[in-house]
Amino acid sequence: METRPLGNTGHDSTVMTFGTIALNWLEQEGANQMVEHVLDYGVNHFDVAPTYGDAELKLEPKLRQHREEIFLGCKTGERDYEGAWQRLEQSLDRLGVEKIDLYQVHGLEYDEELDEITGDGGALEAFREAKAEGLIDYIGLTSHSRPSLILNAIDRIDDLESVMFPLNPVVAGKDDEEHDYEAVLRRANEENIGTLGIKAFAAESWPDTDELPERDRPFCNWYRPVCSPDAIRDRFDFAASQGLTSVVSAGDPKLVTMILEAAADYDGLDEAAQRSLIEAARHDDSPVPEQLHH
Amino acid sequence: MDIPRTVSVALADRPVEGSRCLEAGAGVGATTAGLVDAGASRVYAITNDRGHALSTRERVGDESGLSAAPNGKRSGAADRLAVLEADLRAIPLPDGSVDLITAHGLCNVLDPPALSRIVDELHRVAAPGSHLVVDDYDPLPNDAAVRDLFAVENAASELATGRSALTFYPSSVLRDLFVGKGWAFDRERTLLDPVPWTASHLSAHADAAASFAVNCPDVVGDLLAARAERLAAEIGNESVGRMYSLAFRFPT
């Protein structure tokens, strides 16, 4: 599988990152098989978080066995110094590792959170101490929030080595600032910060729970994913062709093999084909009826 | 409104800023929006379809974005946009009055006689040194499922109006046609490959077939309308064919 430099870290990540939340939905034996399956394709970057059910615990046995083959990303949603330290120690313990390669601020959502994280007694103080002690190697950030907030975080966190954010043809087709994650990608690339793409496989929001109760959803993702092999391949190729370091696999284990296949076969996507996917998504989502043309 | 990539890529290497522009066949306003957004000093959006004229005015005219005119004056979209409900075979503009003409997805809805007359009119209103952008579709490959739907739409249109609704001209045909009128060919680029014919496109084409079918001899019309609807449902969506962009200069 193709690899790309993860910013300044010196690590070359595979073009697919395994989103280990998928392990949460499997029994231990299935989780072990899934990790072996993913490693068989050559994937070398795994991403986990303490909030992904028991994914850390399910990952632990195989992580112990294959630690050297895996660049491990983990996260904390804690915003203050104490909370971040506690959560880091808990993750090290649950994962059974001595070090996490990439430790990320998880799900940055509001300006005030950025103030807290970067301020005195904020989570980043804990991150930096842990880095000095050799418990983590690199500092990253993840966010589904406004691109302007992520850009702000890039400005304010000097030792940031990676950012994780949404990118797919639906988002790329929207011109407003709220969806301009391409600006984040450009800035990260300018500053040689690694980029990890999420929501690559998101098709649309789930219907209202009155219409489709949560228990009746056919996938465990927060959104309705695309699910045919061709659509998975299109979405992977799109995300990988935008210039991201790596595309994070979708959270539902039913989709993982299709994504692995797409990642293994990835061979670029020309610009006319990229536009074709943006255009298709734009019309699926269009408020204007009766469009004969593109 | 969001400007389609097809439009922004076709306009990217054209001098839109400060130009007097004519969008020939405004559709739902996508190219008009692209011209306004790229800083055109004036955009004449011409369409013979009242619904399209209204939707273009609503979607683009209300945009609050400001752009600079050549004199440095900044004005909003509404001040720079004129949506004209008119026949492109008789454009209500003087000779040599525009600097940039766009025909985005226009030619495929023109049969050869209409195309020929409109090419003459575009030539007439173009100022010396002006630019022309013609974006359209290559003919679809023989095995494309959507061909069947377009064939039914054309059959209904032929019976109802005596002319085809859709004609996909190869890029070489349109290039040679405009060059033959005196335009200098500048460049060709591929906008979409493949072209995504989505469920919403197919349903719009089925609706178009049904509206022609109303004016067909009754049994035939009903059959064609039903056939179009069934084809749209069966095909669902299909990505096939190529959309291209041609650019020309008018000699000074």
UniProtKB/TrEMBL annotation, chain A:
Positions of the NADP-dependent oxidoreductase domain: 16-204
Domain of life of the native organism: Archaea
Gene3D superfamilies on file: NADP-dependent oxidoreductase domain
InterPro entries the record matches: AKR2_Oxidoreductase, NAD(P)_OxRdtase_dom_sf, NADP_OxRdtase_dom
Pfam families per UniProt: Aldo_ket_red
Protein name per the record: Aldo/keto reductase
UniProtKB/TrEMBL annotation, chain B:
GO molecular function annotation: S-adenosylmethionine-dependent methyltransferase activity
InterPro entries associated with the record: Methyltransf_11, SAM-dependent_MTases_sf
Pfam families: Methyltransf_11
Keyword Hydrolase in record: no
SUPFAM superfamilies named among the record's database cross-references: S-adenosyl-L-methionine-dependent methyltransferases
Highest taxon listed in the record's lineage: Archaea
Residue intervals of the Methyltransferase type domain: 22-134
One record GO biological process: methylation
Gene3D superfamilies in the cross-refs: Vaccinia Virus protein VP39 (3.40.50.150)
Keywords: Methyltransferase, Transferase
The name this protein goes by in its record: Methyltransferase domain-containing protein
